[in-house]
Amino acid sequence: MSSEWYELIGRPKFVVAPMVDASEIAWRLLCRRHGAQLCYTPMFHSNVFTKDPKYRKDNFVTCDEDRPLIVQFCGNNPEVMAAAAKYVENDCDAIDINLGCPQIIAKRGRYGSYLQDEWDLLSNIVQTMTKAVSVPITCKVRIFESIEKTVKYALMLQNAGCKLLTVHGRTREQKGPLTGIASWKHIKAVREAISIPMFANGNIQCLEDVYRCLEFTNVNGVMSAEGTLTNPAIFEGINPLVWEMADEYLDLVEKYPCPSSYIRGHMFKMFHKIFTIEDNFDDRHLLATAQNLSDFRQVSMNIRDKYLPYHHGKVHFEDGENMYSNGYNLILPPWICQPYVRMSPEQHKNKMEELSKKQQNNENKRIHEDSEGVVLSRKKMKKLKRIMRRPIKPDSQQHTRGQESCVSDACRNPLGGKCVYQLCKKCCKEKCFKEVLDCKGHRILVLTRRELAKTFEENRSAIPVLNQLETF
Predict the structure, then answer these.
(1) Which segments constitute the DUS-like FMN-binding domain (predicted)?
(2) What pLDDT is recorded for position 2?
């Protein structure tokens, strides 16, 4: 078995999956502290990675603690992917090719699972990247409906030079509300056919699932994505308090900053059961609109102060809020990190049919649902659309308006964020008219317009003189 490099990185069994906008360095370090033995970076677009230095600098961040590490790329051009791999080969232990992404954006970009039928191209990509870099090239794939075709697919990649294969036991069509159960039978069949190290992905909600998968499939390691998002200590085999994990993550973000959208996504996943309780909707709104670390810490603090008495047994469910007023039958209390259990495709289908019948009887309204298949009200949809129209910027790009005042005496208005003279718009307008100035920040163009008027008047007065010259 060609696995010397795998031995050198410690034969990891517990693996954190590559997740776009979710497996940044702060999250990887949090998972490593709680049992993860190997982490993947988020998927990087090879074409953008090679052309845009800012994209590389902003997205590929690592440190000495962040090892072993596998960097994942997507793309369909062998030379471009090899060039992207060259940038990171000295800062990672292997480079992975994303052949598993099932999203529509992957179809448009012709990468991920939408390359799984182009075997000649994939073989060329693996071979070209292998020749270009000194670290192993690995692949992450999805299965075909046929076990036989899946095995042939895996063997093709191994023969092309792939040094480790991760098999997600779902087909390309199994996504969103149609995700369903991953097939460990396909994974087991591939494991029996190939000789390189292999990871399994799918159906992991707790540490017991990891060991069941290892025993059934005989793979070298198990990768988890959603399981780590709702419980970053999944590989440690514990279910910690949600605010403890949130605070530890925010401490890491303070050291390794990332966009607010990443933080918000992680905290929504960890607090997902808490936020199903109606009394916590204010904290949910605070998290949805948070723009800095202090706001995110405030959410965690509010939840801790509210539920710590329940956790210590000082307040019982029947003595306080009805934790399960929404009909959730939880094995663990909602303030404990726990798996997110998806609705089965059959349940989703039945639910949508019932809703469709109900709406046909009442009024003809469209049914809206999120990526997890949860039906959203019209009011919620309008709110989400408003939020989408106001894209969230990184903390470093946030306006500081309101924190500084106009420099004019006796004026307490906030200064304009781009004002040339550090004034509010009213004071700036007065200054420009008095002193004949321009302020591009406030779009006040007194000087420019007066010069244009002067030029126009000069040209206009010259017209009679020209007429007189023409008569001679």
Answers:
(1) 16-260
(2) 57
**Residue 394 confidence (pLDDT):** 54
* Domain membership flag for residue 394: no
What residues are labeled active site? 101
How many domains would you assign to the chain? 4
Kindly give the residue spans of alpha helices, DSSP state H, lying in 271-413. 281-289, 293-311, 345-362, 378-388
Q: Is 156 exposed, middle or buried (0-12, 13-18, 19+ CB in 10 A)?
A: middle
Domain shared by 136 and 225, yes or no: yes
Of the candidates 140, 223, 196, 134, the one whose C-alpha atom is nearest the C-alpha of residue 7 is 196
Tell me if 401 is assigned to some domain.
no
Identify the pLDDT of residue 56. 96
Answer whether residue 400 is part of any domain.
no
pLDDT at 383: 74
Query: What range does the domain containing 338 cover?
Result: 239-342
Query: Of 22, 31, 63, which is closest to residue 256 (Cα–Cα)?
Result: 63
pLDDT at residue 401 in the model: 46
Domain boundary among 238, 261, 276: 238
| Phi/psi of residue 34, nearest 5 degrees | -120, 40
With residue 27 as reference, give the H or E element that holds it: helix 25-33
Looking at the fold, whether 334 and 372 belong to one and the same domain comes out as no
299 shares its domain with 350 = no
| Residues lower than pLDDT 50 in the chain | 1, 319-328, 398-402, 465-472
Half-sphere exposure of 471 (CA within 13 A, CB side): 4
281 and 355 both lie in a single domain: no
204 and 254 together in one domain: no
Is residue 34 helix, strand or coil? coil
Helix/strand/coil (H/E/C) assignment for every residue in 258-275: CCHHHHHHHHHHHCCCHH
First to last CA, the chain: 103
pLDDT value of position 340: 81
Rounded Cα distance, 409 and 431, in Å: 13
